[in-house]
Amino acid sequence: METYHIHRVIIEGFWSNQKIDTKFHRDVNIFIGKNGTGKTTFINLLQGILSVNFDYLRNIQFSNVEITLKKGRSHHKIRVYKEEEDLEYKAIVFKIDQVSFPVPFSALDSGLRTGRVHPKVLSMIEAIKTHLDSLYNISYLSVHRELQEIPENEYASRRRLISNVDQRLNKLMRELTSFQLRLETEANELSKAFESDVLQSMLYDETIDTVDFTKPIEINLKELKNGLNQAYQELGSFNQSVASRISQHIQRIDKAAKSINNWVKKKEGGIDANDIVPLALLRRTEKIINLSRDTESKRKEIFAPINNYIHQIQKYIEDKNFIIQQRGGLRVEKNGQSFHTGMLSSGEKQLLILLTEALLQEGKEFIYIADEPELSLHISWQRMILPSLVELNPNAQLIVATHSPEIAGKRAEKIITMESILSYYE
To answer: Which of 108, 191, 279, 398 has its CA 20 to 30 A from that of 343?
Structure first.
């Protein structure tokens, strides 16, 4: 289903005295700026609105945000503003097109203190989410870049942040397993359909069981044999005995075809009835082979995203093998030893998080926001990461905030500098 993407964002009262006004590309958007220009705050505010995260919204300084969503010629507007009364904020108001949802600050503050939010407020927040969920899909990655700024003597905090990265990776690995098992289920349904079609092919079929004796019979024996081998492999019934039977099958068809072709050419003698049956088998064999090829093509299509995902990983990490296990999950091997993804380096974990998130979007239209995707990545990986994300989901609208010009690679035209979209109130 086609969904909306971000077309334009206007933020007023950003950090009290600034305004942001920027249009977005449909595919890739790279926000670059010096430290202190507000990249992360901008990204967090954008994510906070799109995912209806009031923890972000209540703590970021802004007065009014207007997001224009676009799909073809269709538009929607999301306006979020802080409603004031007596110089104090009274509510955060979501206005989606013409429908307003005011969420009181008092209810949010009470929820933080007590862990409970009034049912009416919860109902309103759910209504906002339901409305926005119907317009777009969103993924957001903020992989705790505070980690690099932790002093050595704050080991406990460092350990907690590292654990959060592992938790995100573990969550994605579980979702990857679910995704893979769902693909396996689809593939099993294909196999069942193939088995049913093979059984039906045993029944009389005029198009198969009628032999034309007016023209020579042409057969590619090698292709016929290979096709039968593949068909039995697809059924899970291929072994040495079956291979021998297939060879006998092909030999008998070849003999029958030569006999009939000789009669067609010379018009002498008669046609042996024993030569007709193998030719009917030929047509049936060709049908089974075509069914097998069609099934194999569909299987490849089903697993193409997973195979592309593994291919993308291996482009970066050449000294290890990444294997999708039959029962689900990702196994890592090096020098004959298997180990868990939790034992990878920080850069390898960050890479897996970015690529797995893109894979799990399943090729759908997504707004994919990533704050500093270059975190812990080698400079050569930084140049490669955006093309990989686009290849895994070409339908996503990528929005990244970065310190690294290397991230842009050959997409310099997609760079949006914070300095160019920020202005100050006079």
So the answer is: 398
